[in-house]
Amino acid sequence: MDPTPLPTNDDLTQDPRGELIAAARVQGSSVYGQDQQHIGVIEDVMIDKRSGHVAYAVLSFGGFLGLGSKHFPLPWRLLKYEPLLPGYVVELTRERLDRAPTRDASGTADWASVDQYWAA
């Protein structure tokens, strides 16, 4: 029997130049605005059960030590990976983000209003 352990998803996605990334590595990733200023971190990803595609990244920002933070579901298509930062860049204004629907403390969101807001 080969004593070499099988690689984990995390092992397979270590190279930032690669096309794949493990969900565990996405959580906690930094998000930056167009001006490359830090906005917040990805708290979670929301996956469409039927298609298997990532639909939203839940951005957490504000607050102190996790208290009072706001949680914004952002369409995954808005995030662009930037290995030089390293993290994701979103091309939206702070004002647009401030008006966006949030996910509440229980982890739920009105997904219809989230979809409608980001479709505009």
Quick structural overview:
The chain has 120 residues and is an alpha+beta fold. The chain is built from four helices and six strands; from the N terminus they run ααββββββαα.
- Structural class, from secondary structure content? alpha+beta
H/E topology pattern = HHEEEEEEHH
- Write down the overall geometry: globular
* Helical residues, percent: 10-25%
Number of strands: 6
Strand content bin:
25-35%
Assembly form of the protein = single chain
Report the C-alpha radius of gyration, rounded: 16 Å
CATH class reads Mainly Beta
Number of separate helices: 4
Assigned CATH architecture: Roll
Structure notes:
By secondary structure, the chain is an alpha+beta fold. The chain has a single domain (26-114), classed as Roll (SH3 type barrels). It has helices at 9-12, 23-26, 94-99, 111-119, and strands at residues 30-32, 38-47, 54-61, 70-75, 79-82, 87-90. A hairpin with a 6-residue loop joins strand 2 and strand 3 (54-61). The longest helix is centred in the C-terminal third of the chain and has 9 residues, at 111-119. The termini are far apart.
Which descriptors would you attach to this protein?
120 residues; alpha+beta; SH3 type barrels; six-stranded mixed beta sheet; 4 helices; 19% helix
List the SSEs and their pairings.
Blueprint: H1 9-12, H2 23-26, E1 30-32, E2 38-47, E3 54-61, E4 70-75, E5 79-82, E6 87-90, H3 94-99, H4 111-119
Parallel strand pairs: 1-6
Antiparallel strand pairs: 1-2, 2-3, 3-4, 5-6
